[in-house]
Amino acid sequence: MTFYSKTPFRNLSRRDFLKLSALATASPYAFSGCSLKMVRPELRELARKNPGVTEAHLKLMDFYSQTFLLGPPAEKELLDLVAHLFTPEEAEIAQHLPFIYGRTAQSISRKVKRPVDEVEASLARMADEKRTVISMRDEDVRVALAIVANRNPSRVEYPKIKQRPRKYGLMPIIPGTFEFVLMEGKNDEFCRKHGELNEALYNTGYIKNILKDRSLPAARYIPIEETIQAVPAALPSDRLSELIREHNSFGLSVCQCRQSQAYSGHDCGLPRDTCMSTGAFADFLIARGIMRRVDRSEALEKKLKAQESGLVTMSVNIELNQPNISCSCCSCCCLILRSITQFNTPGLIAPPHFRPVRDEGKCVRCGACAEKCPMQAHVMKETGWEYKKERCIGCGICASICPQKALEMKPVKGYRRPSATYMGLGLALLPGYAQDVLFPRY
Fold first, then answer.
1. Sign of the C-alpha dihedral computed for residues 139, 289, 187 and 276 taken in this order
2. Average model confidence (pLDDT) for the chain?
3. Among 126, 246, 274, 315, which has the highest number of CB atoms less than 10 A from its own CB?
4. For residue 175, is the peptide bond before it cis, meaning its omega torsion is within 30 degrees of 0?
5. Going by DSSP bridges, is the β-strand pair 219-222/167-169 parallel, antiparallel, or unpaired?
6. May I ask the CATH architecture of the domain 354-412?
7. Is residue 5 pLDDT above 50, yes or no?
8. Is the distance from CB of 323 to CB of 147 less than 8 angstroms?
9. What distance in Å separates the CA atoms of residue 279 and residue 367, rounded to the nearest whole number?
10. Distance (Å, rounded) from C-alpha 231 to C-alpha 246?
C-alpha cells in the first residue's frame, strides 16, 4: 500500500511514513529547540564549577548531547565548547532555535523580548561570521525536500533568496558546527580555539559509546580508480571520475579535520584544499561564502592530487547522481578514519566493495603496503605479512603503490551498493537513530 500526500514524499510507503512520523513525534526536543527543557540537577552542579556559564548554555549543551545527533555526553568538554560557540547573549537567543530548519528573527524576538533588529543582527553574526548556526530560506527547504524525495526541483537562483526572510536553526556538533566553523580556513583566535576544543572533546572517546553495538554507515570510501580499472564488477559509483562527471556545480574548501589538527599543533603536511561539494550542496555552501566555486576540471585535479599524496577519498554513502560532500583525508587527522584507528569502531563507514588480495608468488615482503596503508591493515612481522581485514576500508592505496603488483583489488561478496536516494539512506540509518530517541544512552 502506498501513502499519498501533497508533501514532497509522494509514493512513500505507509510503513516508512509511520516510521518517520513516530521518530518526529518521539523527538520534539530535537525539532523544537531547548528553551522549554528543564535543566537537570547534575548539569547545574557542572555549571557551578565553570563561572560564566548561563542556564541557556546548559540547555544548549543538553541539546547537543543527544546521541540522536551523534552528540557527546553533557560533561565539561562539551560545556567548554558550547561556551566558546555562544556568548551568554547569543546563548539566550540560540536556545530557542530548533534543529536545522528554524525560526525567523521576528519569532525569536518575541521569545527573548528584544527588538527584532537586534536579534536579527545577532543571528546573522552567528550564521555568517561565526558559522555556529545555520540559516535557510523557504527556497532552500524546497530544494532539500525535493532532494530527499528524489525529485528534480526547478533551479534556484541563490542571489534572489536574500529577499526572503531568513530562518535559523541549530546543527549537531559533528557533522555540523565543527565543519561549518572551520571550512573557510580562517586562522583567527575563535577558529583556533574551536579546533582545540573539538579535538579535546573527540579524544574523550565518546564515539565508542555512540557506535557500540550498531552501525550507521553514512559514509563510504572511493577506491583509487587505477586499481579497479580492469575489475568487471566495478560500478560507476566506485569511480571518482564518474562522481565528478555526473555534476555541473562544484564547491571547494579546506579539510576541516586537518585544519583542526594544525590548530592543535599537528600538521601532517598533506594538501588541505580537498573538501568538495557537488550539485545543490555546492550551490548552498557557495552562496554563503563557505566554499569557493570551481569548475569540473579543477575539482578533478584537486581530488587526484590528493590521492597521489596518499589521501583516501570519502563521500556520503549515496549514488553518484545525488548531491554529495566528498573529502580526501588521512588517518592521523580524519575523524571518521580515527574512529577505526584510534577507537576501533568502524560503524560510520560502509563496508568496502573491494579488498586487496595478495599474490604469494609476486610478494617479496618489502613492507611498502604496511608503510603506506592509512589504516594499518597490512602488518609486517618476523613471521611474515599479516592482513587485518577488519581494518581495511578498500581505498586501494596498497595496490597502487606495491612495486611488485602483488596486491590486486577484488570485489567483496554480498556488497551493498550505495542508497539510490537520500530518503533511502535515511531509512537505512533510521533503526540506529530511533533507538537513541526512545532509549537515550546518557
1. positive
2. 83
3. 274
4. yes
5. unpaired
6. 2-Layer Sandwich (3.30)
7. no
8. yes
9. 41
10. 21
Phi, psi for residue 234 in degrees, rounded to 5? -65, 135
- 98 has pLDDT over 60: yes
Contact residues for 407 (Cβ-Cβ < 8 A; gap 6+)? 356, 357, 358, 359, 363, 369, 398, 399
- Whole-Å CA distances, 179 to 106, 145, 291, 299: 28, 22, 11, 19
Closest CA to 287 of 94, 65, 127: 127
pLDDT at residue 144 in the model: 72
Domain layout of the chain by residue ranges? 354-412
Query: Which ranges constitute the DSSP H helices of 274-375?
Result: 279-287, 296-308, 335-341, 368-372
Residue 272 has pLDDT above 60, yes or no: yes
pTM: 0.83
Report the alpha-carbon distance of residue 101 to residue 90 in Å, rounded: 18
Q: What does the alpha-carbon distance between residue 48 and residue 54 come to, in Å, rounded to a whole number? A: 10
Give phi and psi for 385, each to the nearest 5: -85, 140
- Reading the block at residue 73, the C-alpha cell is 555526553
Which residue in 281, 361, 277, 279 sits closest to 326, CA to CA? Answer: 277
3-state secondary structure of 188: coil
Q: Where are the beta strands (DSSP E) in 191-291?
A: 219-222, 250-253, 275-278
Beta bridge partners of 219: 316, 349
Helix (H, G, I), strand (E, B) or coil at 426: helix
